[in-house]
Amino acid sequence: MDGLPRPPAATTPPLRDLTRTTCPYCGVGCGVLAGPDGTVVGDPDHPANFGRLCSKGTALGETIALPGRPLHPEVRGKRASWDAALDAVAEGFRRTLNESGPDSVGLYVSGQLLTEDYYAANKFAKGFLGTANIDSNSRLCMSSAVAAHQRAFGEDVVPGVYEDLETADLLVLVGSNLAWCHPVLFQRVAVAKAVRPSMRVVVVDPRRTATCEGADLHLPLRPGSDVALFGALLAHLHAEGRADRAWVSEHTRGLEAALEAAHAIAPHAAELTGVDPADLATFFRWFAATRRTVTLWSQGVNQSEAATDKANAILNCHLLTGRIGKPGAGPFSVTGQPNAMGGREVGALATMLAGHLDWERPGETELVRGHWRASTIAAGPGLKAVELFRALSAGRIGAFWVMATNPAVSMPDGSSVRDALRRAPFLVVSDCMAKTDTAEFAHVRLPAVGWAEKDGTVTNSERVITRQRAFLPPSGEARPDWWIVAQVAARLGWGDAFAWSGPAAIFREHAALTGLGNDGRRAFDISGLAGTTDAEYAAMPPARWPRPAKGSTVAAERFFAAGGFTAARARFVPTPWRGEGAAAGGDGTLTLLTGRLRDQWHTMTRTGGVPRLMAHAPEPVLAVHPEDTRGIADGALARIAGPHGGAVLRLRHDTGQRRGTAFAPMHWTAQNAPTARVNTTVPPAVDPISGQPALKSARVALSAYEPEWHGFLLARRDLGPTLAPYCATGLAGHGVWRHELAGTEEPEQAFARLIASVGAPGAAWARLEDPASGLHRGVLLEAGRPIAALFLGPHHRLPPRDWLAALITPEADGAVPPIVALLAGRAADGPSPSPTLCVCNGVTQARIRTAVEAGARDVAAVGERTRAGTGCGSCRPEIAALLAAAIEQEAVPA
Ligand SMILES: Nc1nc2c(c(=O)[nH]1)N[C@H]1C(S)=C(S)[C@@H](COP(=O)(O)OP(=O)(O)OC[C@H]3O[C@@H](n4cnc5c(=O)[nH]c(N)nc54)[C@H](O)[C@@H]3O)O[C@H]1N2
Ligand SMILES: Nc1nc2c(c(=O)[nH]1)N[C@H]1C(S)=C(S)[C@@H](COP(=O)(O)OP(=O)(O)OC[C@H]3O[C@@H](n4cnc5c(=O)[nH]c(N)nc54)[C@H](O)[C@@H]3O)O[C@H]1N2
Ligand code: SF4
Ligand SMILES: [Mo]
After folding, report:
1. Residue 306 CA: which ligand is closest?
2. Hey, which of 47, 392, 661, 763 would disulfide with 782, CB 3.0 to 4.6 Å?
3. Is residue 173 exposed (0-12), middle (13-18) or buried (19+ Cβ within 10 Å)?
4. CA-to-CA dists, residue 19 to 14, 22, 337, 471, 472, angstroms
5. How far is the CA of 158 from the centre of ligand 2 (A)?
6. What is the CB neighbour count within 10 angstroms for residue 701?
7. What whole-number distance in Å separates Cα of residue 694 and Cα of residue 684?
8. How distant is the alpha carbon of residue 673 from its chain centre?
């Protein structure tokens, strides 16, 4: 037994009664077997996960009956019939089109739409509204990778497959926290490395993340300096004679110019990247010596001002060595959202046409127009996300439709984006959750079907198209996104072109488009699936593209090993050093590296409703190196301020954070922690080529946030995020909400006010108050059981919340501790509460430490003693980190 997590055993109901579908979160695209009772297990036959699921996937069953689903359309805040709502949308767009022309309307869509929805929206905008002002949140996510692929290959193609990550001898992870963001892929890598320890993993990330656990080398480079790292690597590879000369001369162009830029960088690599020269040399040596090398990258590359150059600098190294599209060797841009890849296929970015066809190539625009049976078509690229919101803000967009994304939270320059949404003349929002920061501003709200109710396809990072299948009826009057688009199109007079009988019909139309004028010229070709019947679509197994209609029956598994680039020859792009992030820290500011947490999905509309997913990180936290904390204590509140706005979060001292940087999660919203929306501090700077925002390089000033009082309130309902100037709310268990608070009024006043906000008839507060020291505590008792607790004090150090929360949940049925214990916030004798690390089995950090003290020496042994890490396995890197820290502690003589 290698102690590695196993796919869950088949449980009731039998697997055959479950529906085969796909996880709606990350771009790994795990196959899922799901049932209407909330059963969710990994699909043992799916090529992405072979039965595994991560913490978020495992908890999917708990999201299908979440409260807060929109059950009917709304027009100007009032319930409306579908007819009335669709009429209103059509009228809003028609009026604007008539008054101001096609470029005065816009759509902002999402990689969380199914391919069919995405196709419908893109066709509607570009072909019928006649505008390319349709951009996707993928602009914030993948557009730099798209641009880099297009520059290098002539087409946006990820050449490799997941298996390459397992068979590589060297895996370089650049700006990717794979352990938390693509956990099942990370587990596949961990298993491969356990089986074949000679395999090496290098992590390139300014901070030490969970992904670094088990890695052979971590390069904590200066944020933004990846261009220097890979430029210097290119020069090194060339100098060491690692160029695949024959391949390069036959299949590429532009090497000389790229080398010239690389040579200018090389002597300064250590200084520019801030990486220890010995580590740099080790990395270069390993890379040079290892034929089977995969370089995987994600947002640390894509979301920066030199993003496209960073990605091309990586691609250059693979082109030089001919390590591309071969088993265990290639560049690998991993996608974020479940259907980021599908969006690229249907061209739902303002800068793309559908089906990898291109405005730039003669005749292709006309091919698309003809296929769509459209009388018009956008003649060229439209506004990219940041430009689109600027146009909205400037009043140049009169009708705007947001689908399956929450830009009020996720766009940079958050305050301006909110203002633009608030002032939009006509705003339509389609979402599967009712209350989002963006929906708040909508004139028309349209209820979309959610994961369990959706039917269509998604494409994952390795080009595998998988069906998402409905296994529940729509909630309330919710409708599929493609249907909503088609209905509006029909009302605008374009019904014929949108008269699909269902997603299978859309899929056929989309698949056929990819074969138009193709003849092997474009890699993306699934015209072989254009004849898929409804029955075949219903049963469609996962299929990797390409799937051409003609020619070879065996579709290529990987691309470009033998050349065959879409642009005939691949291009080396010179990536000179432009001084990214050079001044960071010089002015006393910190570089804010925003990103993700293990158990939350973006703006938390679904994962935030699952108590066990909230347990891992219940409050918005800012991680800062202890020497950069300006004397602010660990656990105190801190303010960060950028030129465009500020935020308040709880400070955590973290030695894994690179000096001069801070990390904050992107997840919190006005619904749950209004002051912790980090995008208020992030300026709208973009990569000049892709237009992707630089979401990881805001400069922020750190200062203490010093309220009059700190406190928390636990209650059986969500009392909202505005109880105090600092307020962060979230589930602390089933039926119990936690509100972390801090305020500026007198503590007595705050205590009285907050007590009044909770009140329950027939319940009474037991109190402990010492105004002299600013201490105010109360526990609300009903029939002898605590149903709420309010603790206020002058200091941020307050009793842990979990013990009280476990007593307050409506599910609690054990003995109630004495009131003195309740008011002390802890059992007199019990163990002191500790944060949950393994959410599958509810194992706390303290229990894991106890197991280590009792002799557990590796993750498997911890698992045997505590069950930690034996569920989905997503917490295993953190267990490894705890183990290492505990063992190190033991080694220190007392
Ligand atoms: N749990 C969870 N998983 C997710 C998501 C989620 O919301 N939650 N979202 C999905 C989506 S849409 C996406 S796009 C992916 C994102 O997946 P990732 O890109 O892996 O995640 P991030 O946390 O955004 O950023 C990755 C890392 O980039 C590092 N970084 C910052 N600046 C630099 C730099 O200049 N150079 C380098 N080399 N690194 C840098 C950060 O420190 C961070 O650790 O995750 C997907 N998976
Ligand atoms: N500072 C900072 N900002 C970032 C990032 C970062 O790293 N740092 N990352 C960026 C990246 S990579 C991304 S991908 C974005 C993500 O940012 P968003 O896309 O804004 O975040 P989500 O919370 O995923 O929003 C999806 C919305 O769609 C709804 N939804 C889900 N499924 C459906 C459906 O089928 N139909 C409809 N109509 N609605 C649905 C959900 O309820 C939710 O409200 O954030 C970006 N913003
Ligand atoms: S790794 Fe997790 S979030 Fe990503 S698809 Fe698989 S189960 Fe879903
Ligand atoms: Mo993303």
Report:
1. 1
2. 763
3. buried
4. 11, 10, 22, 6, 10
5. 23
6. 16
7. 7
8. 19
pLDDT digits over 653-663, tens only?
999 999 999 99
Q: What gap in Å lies between CA 554 and CA 809, rounded to an integer? A: 57
Locate tokens 């020496």: which residue?
Answer: 857
Long-range contacts of 96-100 (CB under 8 A, 24+ apart): 96/398, 96/399, 96/425, 96/426, 97/129, 97/399, 99/398, 100/398
DSSP states of 345-410 as a string?
Answer: HHT-STT--GGG--TTSTTHHHHHHHHHT-S----S----HHHHHHHHHTT--SEEEEES--HHHH
Among protein residues, the one whose CA lies closest to atom 1 of ligand 3? 184
Helix/strand/coil percent split, the chain, to 5: 35, 20, 45
CA 123 – CA 131 distance, rounded (Å): 10
pLDDT 10s digits, 531-554:
999 999 999 999 999 999 975 544
Integer-rounded Cα radius of gyration of the chain:
27
Question: What 3-state class would DSSP assign to 358?
Answer: coil
Place of tokens 């766009």: 411
Q: Which helix (H) or strand (E) holds 792?
A: strand 785-793
Element (H, E) at 732: strand 726-733
- For the question of whether the overall pTM of this predicted structure is more than 0.90, the answer is yes
Whether 720 contacts 757, CB under 8 Å: no
To which H or E segment does residue 75 belong? strand 74-75
Tokens coding 826: 């802890």
In angstroms, the CA 856 to CA 676 distance is: 38
- Phi and psi at 63, nearest 5°, equal -100, -10
CB of 438 closer than 8 Å to CB of 429: yes
CA of 23 relative to ligand 3 center, distance in Å: 6
Nearest residue by C-alpha to atom 2 in ligand 3 = 54
Q: Tell me the one-letter amino acid at 653.
A: H
How far apart are the C-alpha atoms of 689 and 707, rounded to whole Å?
44
Three-class SS state of 501 = coil
Rounded to the nearest 10°, the torsion over CA 94, 95, 97, 103 is: -120
> Which residues, including other chains, have CB under 8 Å from residue 729's CB and lie 6 or more apart?
672, 673, 718, 719, 720, 721, 737, 738, 739, 740
Q: What is the pLDDT of residues 140-166, one digit of tens each?
A: 999 999 999 999 999 999 999 999 999
Here the tokens at position 538 are: 């219903």
Tell me which ligand sits closest to the C-alpha of residue 698: 2
